[in-house]
């Protein structure tokens, strides 16, 4: 065990897989000598050579197409999209090509690609860097979508993503990269895709969340316990596609109350999907409507007002109070 | 210096070997093909023409789905594929099904693809082609990836992208050839410039002097070839493939050709965007007429050969169609089962 930041755990996961499987390749803009703009690939080119860890020209669509082509040849590309706000440039390769490869070919060809990309607000980026676009990915059949909230999960989930024989979108919240350290084993381990994690036990109300909002939710849970003694259970989805509805329903059977917290804009997001599935599976379990805490339905704000836009513990507590007092 | 570059006509930048009368105008560049290989080129062009005529009829009868007519482009299609090895990988568009079939993709599966059956995309394990690409230009960047795969595995194979003139306006065209140039991968980007992207003519597609000239932006060689001349197409691709196999990197080839029919069978009406006179001008350059004349002058092709080639094609198409029709309908579980591993 050693203490790692989330970005160190991500580097460590790629290092582990590059060492294990010569079919694993890492490429993207500035990922080679420079080690990535966030240093996620730091030292990997020096260790594995320019054939396996390499810079691409500046062209996201080219990166995606290269990944699809290499996937056809049996490689396991880890393609870095420098910021997920740039995903629209590579959306064809992700949604029309990689996601559909297995289906279109009846299993003859696959796209065992991991698209890694930083996203998320609260770090004062320029425009088009911080958007939470995971909802678009979740609505694209054929993709798995992973969003870790801590260093341990990041390593185990990234290794699972790299080994997965279908395309995985692996989204790394920038605010979590270096904000804290956690215990991470040096050796290889996996966390199965599609398994949520109960990160805080409680009997009174469930918060379903993912990414940086796990921490916001945990903070709110601590505070509301002090205020009114509420025992909040917090579920970290970890992968939003496939969605672990079983873990969610097990918790709701116990608490009968829930809210969903997401950083993305409110409309048609992950929270909406989670609530729809809860309604389908067990509306009779609920003592109150399931509420959403989300960002407003606007374009992602300029840096000066982003802290007011992103959900904070106070807004989470307000929603908890509403469902508790319903 | 290779043959193609050595013998480019000074006045025209278009590489050719046979003129429209089937006379050799570039003796030194003539590929070294034996009589049997030459006859095979002719048989395949006849087959492709018969197939196109039949597919158009079948589509009109509602017995076939998507079909993008190919008549006029036989020399570009047959000549380019013939210059490849079986291990080379083809990534084409929905009009490039003939090259896929000549590369080993079973004809009946092409019919299933057209009819919207998943088995159409289940390319046999030993056939190195990807399902036809619908998104214009997407295969260009994928070709660079497939070619990089060959390079990383130290295999002497190449990847070839087939696109049309319209495809060269896509951003993916530039990204694909640019990446290929940077990584010096064994790839060929073969553009069949049939003069129209559905209805939009080339002059409204680009202000570039030619499509081949666009290669300069990626720092790779580009060449224009007479796409109605099967020998010239064969030779240009052969040399580009050799260069690629020798580690000399990718080539952009622009084959000047013409699609006699509509864009697809889904209601396109070419008379809205091109004249009968223009169509007749191109038909004078017909790839089958000139190559037939060349072979007949050589004494290795007869009317009887032509007739038997047509019969053979008709029979193979009927057999393929029968097999496609006998294939059980795909099911919804097939869809669900193939979403993920």
What can you see in these coordinates?
The complex is a heterodimer of chains A (326) and B (341). Chain A is α/β, with parallel strands linked by helices. Chain A has twelve helices and 14 strands. In chain A, the strands form three sheets. Chain A has a seven-stranded mixed β-sheet with strand order 3-2-4-5-7-6-12, sandwiched between helices. In chain A, helix 10 links the parallel strand 13 and strand 14. In chain A, helix 3 packs parallel to helix 4, helix 8 crosses helix 12 and helix 9 packs across helix 10. Chain A is globular. The model of chain A has no long low-confidence stretch (mean pLDDT 97). About 2% of the residues of chain B have low confidence. By secondary structure, chain B is an alpha/beta fold. Chain B has a single domain, classed as Thiamin diphosphate (ThDP)-binding fold, Pyr/PP domains (Rossmann fold, 3-Layer(aba) Sandwich), CATH 3.40.50.970. Chain B contains twelve helices and eight strands. In chain B, a hairpin with a 2-residue loop joins strand 5 and strand 6. Chains A and B meet through helix 3, helix 4 and helix 5 of A and helix 6 and helix 7 of B.
Structural class of chain A: alpha/beta
Order of helices and strands of chain A: EHEHEHEHHEHEHEEEEHEEHEHEHH
The sequence of SSEs of chain B as H and E is HEHHEHHHEHEEEEHEHHHH
| Average pLDDT reading of chain B | 95
Strand fraction of chain B equals 5-15%
> How far is the first residue's CA from the last residue's CA of chain A?
45 Å
Helix content of chain A: 25-40%
């Amino acid at each position: 065990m050693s203490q790692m930041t989330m970005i160190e755990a991500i580097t460590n996961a790629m290092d582990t897989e590059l060492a294990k499987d010569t079919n694993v390749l890492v490429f993207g803009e500035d990922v080679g000598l420079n080690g990535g703009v966030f240093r996620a690939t730091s030292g990997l080119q020096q260790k594995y050579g320019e054939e396996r860890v390499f810079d691409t020209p500046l062209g996201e669509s080219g990166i995606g197409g290269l990944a699809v082509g290499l996937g056809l040849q049996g490689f396991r590309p880890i393609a870095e999209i420098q910021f997920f706000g740039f995903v629209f440039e590579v959306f064809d390769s992700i949604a029309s090509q990689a996601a559909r490869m297995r289906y279109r070919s009846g299993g003859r060809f696959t796209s065992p690609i991991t698209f890694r990309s930083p996203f998320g607000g609260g770090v004062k980026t320029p425009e088009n860097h911080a958007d939470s676009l995971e909802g678009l990915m979740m609505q694209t059949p054929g993709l798995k979508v992973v969003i870790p909230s801590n260093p341990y999960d990041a390593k185990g989930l990234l290794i699972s993503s790299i080994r997965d024989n279908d395309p995985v979108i692996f989204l790394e919240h920038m605010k979590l990269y270096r904000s804290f350290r956690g215990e991470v084993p040096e050796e290889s381990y996996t966390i199965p895709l599609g398994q949520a994690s109960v990160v805080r036990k409680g009997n009174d109300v469930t918060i379903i969340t993912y990414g940086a909002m796990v921490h916001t939710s945990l903070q709110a849970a601590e505070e509301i316990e002090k205020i009114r003694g509420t025992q909040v259970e917090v579920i970290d989805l970890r992968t939003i596609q496939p969605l672990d509805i079983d873990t969610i329903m097990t918790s709701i059977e116990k608490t009968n109350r829930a809210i969903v917290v997401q950083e993305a804009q409110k409309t048609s997001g992950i929270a909406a999907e989670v609530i729809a599935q809860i309604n389908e599976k067990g509306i009779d379990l609920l003592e109150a409507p399931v509420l959403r805490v989300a960002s407003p339905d606007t374009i992602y704000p300029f840096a000066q007002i982003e802290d007011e836009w992103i959900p904070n513990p106070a807004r989470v507590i307000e929603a908890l109070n509403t469902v508790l007092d319903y | 210096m290779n043959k193609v570059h050595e013998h480019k006509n000074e006045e025209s930048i278009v590489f050719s070997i046979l003129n429209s009368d089937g006379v050799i105008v570039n003796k030194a560049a003539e590929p070294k093909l034996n009589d049997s290989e030459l006859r095979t080129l002719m048989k395949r062009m006849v087959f492709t023409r018969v197939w196109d005529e039949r597919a158009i009829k079948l589509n009109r009868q509602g017995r076939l789905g998507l079909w993008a007519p190919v008549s006029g482009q036989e020399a570009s299609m047959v000549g380019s594929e013939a210059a490849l090895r079986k291990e080379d990988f083809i990534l084409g568009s929905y009009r490039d099904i003939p090259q896929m079939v000549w590369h080993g993709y079973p004809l009946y599966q092409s019919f299933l693809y057209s009819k919207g059956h998943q088995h159409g995309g289940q390319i046999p394990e030993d056939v190195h082609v990807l399902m036809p690409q619908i998104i214009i230009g997407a295969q260009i960047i994928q070709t660079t990836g497939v070619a990089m795969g060959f390079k990383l595995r130290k295999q002497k194979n190449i990847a070839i992208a087939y696109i049309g003139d319209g495809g060269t306006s896509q951003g993916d065209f530039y990204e694909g050839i640019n990446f290929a140039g940077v990584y010096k991968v064994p790839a060929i980007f073969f553009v069949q410039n049939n003069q129209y992207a559905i209805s939009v003519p080339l002059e409204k597609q680009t202000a570039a002097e030619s499509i081949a000239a666009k290669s300069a932006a990626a720092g790779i060689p580009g060449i224009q070839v007479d796409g109605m001349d099967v020998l010239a197409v064969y030779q240009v691709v052969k040399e580009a493939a050799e260069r690629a196999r020798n580690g000399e990197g990718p080539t952009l080839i622009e084959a000047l050709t013409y699609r006699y029919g509509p864009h697809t069978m889904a209601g396109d009406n070419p008379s809205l965007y091109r004249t009968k006179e223009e169509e007749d001008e191109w038909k004078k350059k017909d790839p089958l007429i000139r190559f037939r004349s060349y072979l007949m002058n050589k004494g290795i092709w007869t009317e009887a050969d032509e007739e038997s080639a047509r019969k053979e094609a008709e029979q193979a198409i009927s057999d393929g169609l029968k097999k496609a029709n006998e294939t059980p309908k795909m099911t919804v579980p097939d869809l669900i089962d193939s979403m993920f591993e």
